[in-house]
Amino acid sequence: MGPDARPAAKASDAGITTGCLARRLGVSPTTLRSWDRRYGLGPAVRDEGRHRRWTPEDVATVQEMCRLTASGVPPAEAARIARQRPSTAAAPRSGLHAAPAANPRREPERTAAVPSPPPPHAGSGTSSEHPRQACVGLARAAVRLDAAAVQERLADAVSTHGVVGAWEKVMVPSLRAVGRRWESSGDRYIEVEHLLSWHVSTTLRHVYVTSTLRHAPHAAPPVLLACLPGEQHTLPVEALSAALAERGVPALVLGAAVPTETVVAAVQRVGPAAVVLWSQSRSTASLPLARHIAATRWGVRGARTQSLVMLCGPGWSRPAEPGLTCPAGLGAAVRMLTPAGSA
Length: 343
Description:
Blueprint: H1 5-12, H2 18-25, H3 29-39, E1 45-46, E2 52-53, H4 56-70, H5 75-83, H6 131-143, H7 147-184, H8 190-214, E3 223-227, H9 235-246, E4 251-255, H10 260-270, E5 274-278, H11 287-295, E6 297-298, E7 305-306, E8 308-312, E9 324-325, H12 330-337
């Protein structure tokens, strides 16, 4: 190797390229260049061809920028804070691997001062993040298609607010925000909505399974939850089942688009304490089915009983009738279905 080649080799060894850093952080190279141009968060080293080379210190600064913006901090303010972060120059140097982990969203959980989260059903968490900030951070993580950050933020929301609070304050607002972005930009963000919906479902089902296993088996009859025939929107039903399981209330979930005869057969076989029928639109709501289930009785002769039928979702527009009730939202439904002393 000639003497003229050595400086170039040392420059190229000083860090990684913009494309490599973008892949590690889950952002686009355009975003990194924009942060460099607008906020001065660029690399300290450029090789002879003026290609950007990001050192471990540069990487740590941009990671902090990603963490702050994912938490809902405005970019200009996040850049100011990231630039003022303590230098890591004194840390042991062993190449790029000496820098913080590539996923900046996981850094807060490494802080020893963070206390253990309370039981989910307590509804009072340890995080000081406002629900609005949580929504912004969750939506931005979904737009970046950062699955790890999306799942972590959803788990934190449940731990902080409980299922009902997380659903009403974080999950639903974030889903609506992503849906509006999709509608206003054609089909550009359909993958974002699918990613977020899948992780919301995963989070809720995890709570349902772990809570069901944690609570002792119940002798009491379960609450039966089903989507009406033709109804494919299951997230609200999953949220209700998770919230009930969180409180130790047994729930039996039949899922999407349950045929009429299947719902009736399940009611007669299980004898549920209540039947929740979910309808997202008027086209799937069936008042005759609800009335039939409310009139269905079971049990031994002389001690026959029947289930309370709960009509949930925007598809139901008629007032409640005897044996039927229409709760106003997830919280109201959970309160009606939770026995006294179980909350």
